[in-house]
Amino acid sequence: MIEDALGAHPAVQLCAAIGAPDAYAGELPVAFATLVPGASVTEEELLAFTAARVDEAPARPKSVTIIEQMPMTNVGKIYKPELRQLAACGIARAVVDQVCAGLGLDPAARPRVQAHGDSALQVLIDPQTAGPQAAALQAQLAQVLGRLPIKVQLVLQQQ
């Protein structure tokens, strides 16, 4: 349903919809798209275009992300596990940014989020750059990220 709606946009070359982790709902629909060469459209325009064509409100995507290349399997099908990882990393980065902003941390001190295996994430915290707030940062991230329906490992990096 989402893929048909998004794929109808003239600027979209390939698209896929997946469930992104959400602390409240479990998963929320999001979409990824590659553009026709030379096409120009914003993610907001694609989201509005798609939402107008999906009748059921809960099924409307919460975001559309434009990517350079769609991940594909060896037989030419869209590889959705990689898209799920991209979505999960994006959700976790937003949470990390929000917690860090609340603590007043310098953007350079923000932890890195990366995929870890097929269905988990790692959040890498550098205690030296986080300074005296490293323990508070780790505790808040554990609490907030722990609500997501994905495995998240907090790692203190030792340099």
Can you summarize this structure?
The chain contains five helices and six strands; from the N terminus they run αββαβαββααβ. With 159 residues, it is α/β, with parallel strands linked by helices. β2 (26-35), α2 and β3 (64-66) form a beta-alpha-beta unit.
Task: Present the secondary structure layout.
Elements: H1 2-7, E1 12-22, E2 26-35, H2 43-51, E3 64-66, H3 80-103, E4 112-115, E5 120-125, H4 127-130, H5 134-145, E6 151-156
Parallel strand pairs: 2-3, 5-6
Antiparallel strand pairs: 1-2, 4-5
Please, how many domains? 2
Low-confidence stretches: none
Based on the structure given, which CATH architecture of the largest domain is correct? 2-Layer Sandwich
Q: Work out the helicity level.
A: 25-40%
Instruction: Determine the N-to-C terminus distance.
Output: 48 Å
User: What is the CATH C-level name of the largest domain?
Assistant: Alpha Beta
Largest sheet: 3 strands, mixed
The secondary-structure element order is HEEHEHEEHHE
- What amount of the residues lies in strands? 25-35%
Task: Specify the overall morphology.
Answer: elongated
